[in-house]
Design goal:
heterodimer, A: alpha+beta, B: 178 residues, mainly alpha, 75% helix
Chain lengths: 200, 178
C-alpha cells in the first residue's frame, strides 16, 4: 500500500519551490506513488503551456473558415472518399444581362462567370433595396449541367445560408449586401467561389 | 468524440473543430504561412479530417495526424509556389530541416496542442480563476502579495485558490482526454 497523503497544493508548492521543507514530499515521491508522479508530470507539462496561453492572443481561423469546416457535417456523411477542392476564378462580370426568370424589380442585374478546371459556374444577381436574389448554375465546359448536392454561402462573420436547389439551378432568395464565399458540393469535388460580392 | 462524428452527430463535429481549429491554424502560422493562407489551409485540412475520420479512432493520435497533414500541405503549396512563406527563407528552410532532424520532432506539436487545450479549458473556468492564474502565471506575473491586493483577497488565500483553480483546469483537460 502506498497511500497518497500529499495534496495537489503541496505538490504544486513543491514544484514551484515554495515549500520550506521539501523532504516529506521528496520521500513520498521516492516511495513510488504513481498518482503524485502523474500530477507532478502534469504540472511540468501544463504550467509552461498555461504561461504561453496567457501570454498571447489565441490564434484561430476566420469565422468564415470555421463556419465552412462546421458546415461539412451538414452536407455529407463523414469518412467518405476524399474530395478535391477546386478554387474557382472569376472570368467574366457584366451588368444589364438577360436571364430567364430574373424579375428586374430592383437595380441592374449582374452576371458573373467563374471557372475551376472543368467546372463553370454562372451567377446571376438581382439586387433589391436591402438584399439580393442570387441564382446559380454549374456546367461542365462542354455545357452539361452539373447539379450540386448542396450550396452554402458563408459570410465573413461565419454565418451560413444554404441554397435551394431547384432543378439545375441553385437559389439564394435573400442575401444581404456583403461578401460571401460560395461552397458548391459536387459529386466528386468541392468548388469554392471566393469573395462573391453581393449588393454593391 | 470521433465515434459520435462518424455516427453523424453534427454537434460532435462542431466540438472537434472547436477543439482543433486553434491548433491547426497556429501550426500553419508556425510554418510561416500568412493568416489568409493559413485560413485556406485550415479549410482544406478540415475536409481531409472529415474524410479520414474513420481511420482515426483515437483522439490522442489526432494531433500527430493533423501535424503530418499540415506539414505535407504547407510543403506542397510552397513547392508549387501557391503560398509565400513569411520571414527569412533560410530560417524557414532551417526550421523545416530542424523539424525532421531534432531529437524529438513531436515535442513542438505537443506543446502547441497543450497550449491550445489550455486556452479552451481556461474559457470554462470562472473569471476569478482566470484573473488569478493570469496574475500568477501570465507574462506579467506578480507575486502573491500583489495578486492578493489586486484581487482583494487575503494573502493566505492566494496559494490555496491557485491550487484549486489549477486542479479545475486539470479536470477540464482530463475531460478533453488529457
Amino acid at each position: 500500500m502506498n497511500p497518497c497523503n500529499v495534496t495537489f497544493e503541496e505538490l504544486l508548492d513543491y514544484h514551484e519551490q515554495r515549500l520550506a521543507d521539501r523532504g516529506p514530499v521528496e520521500r513520498h515521491l521516492g516511495s513510488g506513488c504513481t498518482e503524485c508522479a502523474e500530477r507532478l508530470s502534469w504540472l511540468r507539462q501544463f504550467l509552461p503551456a498555461l504561461s504561453s496561453a496567457l501570454g498571447s492572443p489565441a490564434p484561430g481561423p476566420s469565422a468564415r473558415a470555421a463556419a465552412f469546416a462546421r458546415a461539412l457535417a451538414r452536407t455529407e456523411a463523414p469518412g467518405g472518399p476524399a474530395l478535391r477542392t477546386l478554387v474557382a476564378h472569376l472570368v467574366f462580370e457584366g451588368r444589364d444581362v438577360s436571364m430567364p426568370g430574373l424579375r428586374r424589380t430592383g437595380g441592374e442585374p449582374r452576371q458573373r462567370v467563374y471557372e475551376a478546371e472543368a467546372v463553370v459556374v454562372n451567377l446571376w444577381e438581382e439586387p433589391s433595396e436591402e438584399s439580393a436574389y442570387l441564382i446559380g448554375q454549374a456546367y461542365s465546359r462542354e455545357g452539361t449541367a452539373l447539379v450540386p448536392a448542396s450550396v452554402e454561402a458563408v459570410s465573413p462573420e461565419g454565418r451560413s445560408w444554404r441554397a435551394e436547389v431547384r432543378g439545375e439551378e441553385f437559389h439564394f432568395p435573400r442575401l444581404a449586401a456583403g461578401s460571401y464565399e460560395l461552397l458548391l458540393k459536387m459529386a466528386d469535388q468541392w468548388v469554392r467561389l471566393r469573395d462573391v460580392r453581393v449588393g454593391d | 468524440m470521433i465515434a459520435a462524428c462518424l455516427a453523424g452527430d453534427a454537434a460532435a463535429w462542431d466540438a472537434l473543430i472547436t477543439r482543433y481549429q486553434g491548433f491547426i491554424f497556429a501550426l500553419a502560422l508556425r510554418y510561416g504561412l500568412s493568416a489568409a493562407d493559413a485560413d485556406d489551409l485550415f479549410q482544406d485540412v478540415s475536409i481531409k479530417l472529415y474524410r479520414h475520420l474513420g481511420e482515426l479512432r483515437e483522439v490522442r493520435r489526432l494531433s500527430g495526424w493533423l501535424a503530418a497533414v499540415i506539414r505535407q500541405e504547407v510543403w506542397g503549396r510552397w513547392r508549387r509556389r501557391e503560398v509565400v512563406l513569411l520571414g527569412d527563407l533560410s530560417e524557414v528552410e532551417q526550421s523545416w530541416a530542424d523539424w525532421g532532424a531534432g531529437p524529438d520532432p513531436e515535442q513542438e506539436v505537443l506543446a502547441l496542442e497543450r497550449e491550445n487545450l489550455v486556452r479552451i479549458s481556461l474559457d470554462s473556468l470562472g473569471e476569478e480563476c482566470r484573473r488569478l492564474l493570469a496574475l500568477l502565471y501570465g507574462p506579467e506575473a506578480t507575486g502573491y502579495a500583489e495578486a492578493a491586493e489586486r484581487l482583494g483577497m487575503p494573502l493566505g488565500s492566494v496559494g490555496p485558490r491557485r491550487a484549486r483553480c489549477l486542479a479545475r483546469l486539470r479536470k477540464k483537460l482530463e475531460e478533453l482526454g488529457y
